[in-house]
Structures are given as C-alpha cells and as structure tokens.
C-alpha cells in the first residue's frame, strides 16, 4: 500500500516534467521581430513564426522574454530549449549550439543623421563612433573591419538609438528592418536615414548564413521537429503570409 | 570548464581592474570632499541649510543608483538645449556621467554617516575647545573633524566597499570595468560561469585590500574608541 502511494506520488512529480512546454527565449528589444506591446505581451515576426512552427509541429511552447547576454549560455546550460531572436547562423555559434533550417536572410544597414554626409567605409568612419549591440553579427563585423572607429557596445537592441539621438554615436549598424520599424518610422528617427550599401552574409562572413531558431546541441530530436514545422508553414503559405504582413515582400 | 578563455583575456581583466580602481578612488575622494562640509550643514542651526542637505541626501539615498545613472546618461541626452550647451562635451562622456552619479550618490550616504559621527562627539570635548578659546576653524580642525571621522570609520569603511562594488554598474553605460569585461566575454564566448567567477575573485581581492586599509586606519586613528583596552 505504501509502495503504491509512493509510486503515485512519484508519478505526480514526474508528470509535469513530461508535459512541460518547451521554454523558448527571445530578447524582446528588437521590433518588428520581437518586442513587448503596451499590454506586456510578446509580439513580432519571430514570435508569430515560432507560434506557427510550434502549432505545425504539435509542440507546446512557452515563449518568454530574456536578457540578451544570458540567452546563448542559458541554451547551452539547458535553461532554455530553444531561442528565437533573429539569431544569425555563424560558425562560431555552430560550435556551441545547433540551429534549425534558416528561415530568413536579413539585410544589414548603417543608419546616421540625414545631414551627416558620412562615407561608409573603414576610412570614412575613422575616428567616428559606431554604436552596436554587443555579441551580435554587427558587432563582429565592425570589430573586424572598422578598426579606426570607436565602437560602443550595448546590451540591448534599443539603447544604440538613444545614443544616436543623444549625439554620442555617429552611426549605428543593425538589421535594416529593425532600423526602419523601430527607429526611422518613429518621431525620434525622423532626421535619420539608412546609409551605405545593403550588407548580407555574402558581403562578410561575420553576418552569417541567415537567421534560424537555435536549439541545444544535443537535442537533435527537437531540431528535426522544428524543421518539420518550418517546412510545413513554408508549404501551407503561413511563412509567405507572415513575410507579406511584416515586410511586404 | 573554459578557464582558458579567462586566461586568454587576462589583459582585458587587468585593464578592467584598473578602471574599477580608478573609478572607486576618484569617486571616493570627491564624495569625501563633498560630504565633509555637508555633514556640518546637516547639523546646522539654520533650518534652511539643514533641510536643503536632507533633501539632497533623501533624493540620492531614496532612488536606486542604476536609475540615477540611466537618468543622467540617457535622460539628460534627450534635451536638445543641453546637447548644444558647453556642458555637453563633458556630459556626453560615459566616464563623466558615471563619476558624477557615483560622487553624488556616495556623497549622500557619506554625508549622513559623517553627520551621525558629528552628533556623537561628547559635549565635554566641545566645551573644552570653547574653554580654551578655540576659533571655530581651529575647533573644526582639531575637535570636530577628527572626532567625526574616527567615530564614522566603521560605517564609512562599509560605504567605501559598497561604492567599489557599485562601480560595476558603469558597465551599463559602455565602460569596460571588471564587470563589463566579464559581460563582454560572456557575450562573445557564450559561457557565463568562468568570466563572472574571475570578476568576483578580482572584486574580492580588491575588497580585502580596502578592508585591510580601513582596519589599519581604525587602529591608527580610532583606537581610543575601542572598549577592550
């Protein structure tokens, strides 16, 4: 009788662990991809995409906001099951985490004040201050190629814009869509514009191969499931609809 | 374990420790000089002076240091007027903003600590100074300030340690002190334990030095206050 009770108690303990939804982290400082709306709800392209993938793959997912600096270490330590945060696939990251299939190919751009007349090149930006989010492909790119510039690094995707409007930084580099949606379309960004060439993974290896969902290195089962979900939403037009809705392409 | 990453970046840690020490010493000295007169004003007979100092210490002790830092660094930058002013070359520097906030914040705590020390000076010492016909300046230099500092030392020692640890917030405004270095390594190597353990060990070593210095000062200047001899 006691044993039976014990088994019952143990099964109670084990049950939530089995049914627990996947913990998925995102850094919600990066509209239109991931941000928090006025009601405190996570919104954005990545969020909708992840929800669609989970639904297609019949996974129960719990997407939560997390600090950028703890995301990849958290995934490695098993605190999170997956990350969706416009993470670009790079060789350096592949060494420590696994990725799903690539779901988009972002364009990177510089942004500066309209009358700044900056020439975007390592020489043109010599002595200028570049603001960038730490540990991103943009950070790796300017660190490698813009050695004559001062590079200021921030923990969030939104702080560089404060520095730009505050006059502490001359130029910022980020995802073009993020610059347009979160800054240029806003009141504070009206005097600013995209400058320099459109950059992609073809221009510099630091920009990576494309954007994918990050998954724990040993969790090949989840990689397969997520890829199946991605394939499904690609086939049934959900991904196209999402691209159309957010980027009109 | 990835201790090799820490070893690879020892030079960065050394630079970070240098900045931490520099920030701490500079803030401490300026906060000390600020708190010294304010402690007297805090106990002034004039209600206006007393209340002004209380207002200052209440604001700076009543709000988190991080909030103060963000208000000064990001908040002030939003005013066009200020950006055009002669102050901007100074205020646009994260180092100046961090120092300003550390000094004002620590100055508020130190003022209250010193003012408390002043209030505990025995009446007899003050009366003795008056009986000897000390001028107010002489009384301040010989009686009030030494009495205040020696009685404040244990609390002030704590404040010094707290300030040194508070400089870790400077990393949030792009300054690469010890914590900033650890955070940067975390973001670029995707490990969290080792960089922060290394940072903690450096802080521990620096704190040990500071504690030893305070104890030395206590033995030298405040021995007469000890009960066990």
Can you tag this structure with a few keywords?
heterodimer; A: 249 residues; alpha/beta; 5-stranded mixed β-sheet; 13 strands; elongated; B: 229 residues; mainly alpha; MetI-like fold; 79% helix; 0% strand; flat
Please, what is the oligomeric state? heterodimer
Query: For this structure, what is the CATH class of chain B?
Result: Mainly Alpha
Contiguous low-pLDDT stretches of chain A (5 residues minimum) are none
Mean pLDDT of chain B: 93
State the helical fraction of chain B: over 70%
Largest sheet: number of strands, sense, barrel closure of chain B: none
What is the number of helical segments of chain A per DSSP (H or I, 4+ residues)?
Answer: 9
Number of DSSP helical runs of chain B = 11
**CATH topology call of chain B:** MetI-like fold
- The value of Rg of chain B in angstroms is 21 Å
Low-confidence stretches of chain B: none
What does this structure look like?
The complex is a heterodimer of chains A (249) and B (229). In chain A, helix 2 packs across helix 8 (220-235) and helix 2 (45-56) runs antiparallel to helix 9. In chain A, strands 5-1-6-13-7 form a five-stranded mixed sheet, sandwiched between helices. Chain A has a five-stranded mixed sheet with strand order 10-9-11-8-12, sandwiched between helices. Chain A starts with a helix and ends with a helix. The longest helix of chain A is centred in the first third of the chain and has 18 residues, at 2-19. In chain A, a hairpin with a 5-residue loop joins strand 3 (34-36) and strand 4. Chain A contains nine helices and 13 strands. Chain A is α/β, with parallel strands linked by helices. Chain A has helices spanning 2-19, 45-56, 68-76, 91-94, 137-145, 159-165, 176-184, 220-235, 238-247, and strands at 22-26, 29-30, 34-36, 42-43, 61-65, 82-88, 98-99, 108-113, 129-133, 150-154, 171-175, 192-199, 211-215. With 229 residues, chain B is mostly helical. Chain B has one domain (4-226): Orthogonal Bundle (MetI-like fold), CATH 1.10.3720. In chain B, 79% of the residues lie in helices and 0% in strands. Chain B contains eleven helices and no strands. In chain B, helix 2 packs across helix 7 and helix 4 (65-75) packs antiparallel against helix 7. The longest helix of chain B is centred in the N-terminal third of the chain and has 33 residues, at 10-42. The model of chain B has no long low-confidence stretch (mean pLDDT 93). Classes of the chains: A alpha/beta (249), B mainly alpha (229).
